[in-house]
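Contributing new complexes? Match this layout with iron/sulfur cluster.
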Amino acid sequence: MTKGLYVETYGCQMNVRDSRQIVALLKEEGYSEVSDPKLADVIVINTCTVREKAAQKVMSRLGRLLGLKKRKEDLIIVLAGCLAQQRGESILKRMAHLDLVIGTHQIRHLPTLIRKVRYTGAPLIELSFSTGLYCYPEAPLPEDKEPCAFVTIMQGCNNFCTYCVVPYVRGPEESRPAEEILAEIRCLVEKGVREVTLLGQNVNSYGQTLTDGITFPQLLERICEIEGLERIRFTTSHPKDLSEELMACFARLPKLCPHIHLPFQSGSNKILRLMNRGYTREEYIEKIVHLRNICPHIAITADVMVGFPGETEEDFCATLDLMEKIRFDNLFSFKYSRREGTYAANMVDDVPAEVKAERLTILQKKQEAHTWEKHQALVGEKVEVLVEGRSKNSLMDATGRTPTNKIVNFPASEDQYGKLVTVKITQAFLHSLRGEIIE
Ligand code: SAH
Ligand code: SF4
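Output block (do not edit by hand):
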């Protein structure tokens, strides 16, 4: 009989990709995925700790799942991901029913560790960092038939933005060898994948830890040569490392989708300095202007934060002003959250919670107006969409994204899944577009 595996994922795309790898690895051990934790023999919670809210959400969910152990004694509950890396030891001490805690570099060892726990019956914790092992080339690829896939091209981060816990929980930056990445993408394409999103905390600095001298633009060029692959995306870029050479790729490489996610975090030079971001607002704007010159229809999205220590009304207005100047296609916006162990944790978290909330609301309202304006402008336009599968909203509809990463829902038959189609946009909403296939 197969054993049930239930995986729950929190946080970023890197975690989504890691969870897929967990599923693939445990499938080889005879597990099959179940959608109800009550049916599982192993439960994996893949966690995030980038903000306190994410960590709290995981903790309360974990508490509830641990209750399942009362009904099923041989159930194994695994805590994985960034929160596990950061607070695994103290969580294990507090939560008696937790069986296994693994850090961000231990995924490939998960099957062995689960077997060990089963054998000894004792809880286990493995948080060590490793080099070169993270990308497990020998691990099986995800099996789902989706036409889009995430491909991790590097791990960790050396930037140490003062607010950010990522360098501590994901370890130092390390790039994955190009040949390994290319082999994985070729294999994905053989399985029907048409679009890949290359993942890393700062993909712009790809290659710096490798000895073969390959740069990120050169990697993109080689990926473009893979026959059968239609689209390439990447995330995340850091403004300080966004080179001329990389920007030129948007004009030069036809498979590279015209969209860049370029977090700016704040529009105030004072705050950017305190954040250790390594660029000024003027430099950021200059890069966007350059990108738009090279590729006029490029979509620009970003991350931004409000309420960083020392952020005055004037600093916040500088953020709003930057938004007005750039007019982003979309923004991911957050309230600053103090993270233990970071440099900024030593600064006084002096912006009151209600001011953070108020600033976030103002910022999000402004962005909604900009997003709405961009979506409205697409009504009547013909856009190329990769049909990704069934829409969540309606059984009759399929869903896909434009090259600029906007979600489109439209009627389509199942034999069109995985294909590129031309869609005429008929209606705009705040979070998606509606259209009909015309070719
Ligand atoms: N490596 C990526 C993003 C990592 S975290 C980059 O450099 O862009 C994703 C986003 O979470 C960040 O861009 C930032 O906007 C937000 N974030 C990170 N730490 C945070 C904190 N302590 N409080 C609030 N938001 C945070
Ligand atoms: Fe965090 Fe900065 Fe690294 Fe992004 S670049 S992961 S925000 S330290």
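Reviewers usually confirm one structural detail per submission. For this one: The domain at 3-126 is CATH 3.40.50.12160 (Rossmann fold).
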